[in-house]
Amino acid sequence: TRNDSTLRLIQNAIARYGVKNFDWVVVNTGDFDRSNVPDANHCWVQDDQGEAFPLLAYSTSTKQFGNTLPDFVFDHWKQTGLNDYEQTRGALKRFDFPQAATPCLGWRGALTHPSRSILVGLDDKVNFDCELIRWDRSNPDQLTASNFLSFEQQVAQWRYLIDMRGVGYSGRLKLLLSSPRVVFLQERVYEEYFFPHLKAWVHYVPVKEDLSDLQPNLDLLRSRPGMEAEILKNAAEFSQLYLTRDYAIFKMAKLFESLG
Fold it and tell me: Among 227, 195, 208, which Cα is nearest to 162's?
């Protein structure tokens, strides 16, 4: 349902902000950008007849944020139990800090990038509670897994969260940043529209792709409760500025106005 959700968000943006007609544009709803026309300033995609169209995508690997569109999750991700973005975001914000079931850094996810195996290898249920999930896709409208945890359950269970690389970008990051938990963010190639405003050690704790500094950075954060509180405060402000559905719709409107 990615296409349906993306189209619904675009239609809302056009209607709410009175966006005037614009020419054809291609919207890639996959996990990464697919530009096939090199350009220093824009992303384009060329059809079989040689005609090039602006290409919008959920993420960029080349810092071309002018072509980066807020993703389908701002509508819903019902297949993984997220029935409405703002309802889930609101539920996460209401959790108390630091009342979590365990003082662990936790994660659940599928094996969509090799570094996720490194993370699972750290699992000791003391510092790290990290497990791979294997989706049962027999019902494509409602994926299930024996060790699946909803966003609300993750926040209730763990004091620290981590966002890992996937096939491309990660759709869950915006929700993790909206929770009262410090997010550890693995370095990545694919970045979303809000990344130019996102700052390491201000809004999140940075982690190298090979996770070699994950334990030291976790130890550092644990030793400095004031740093933890400051990052949480900054992340909450960031979420309210850039990660609401209303802002995503506004961002879409400005993007399509620029194509007019």
Answer: 208
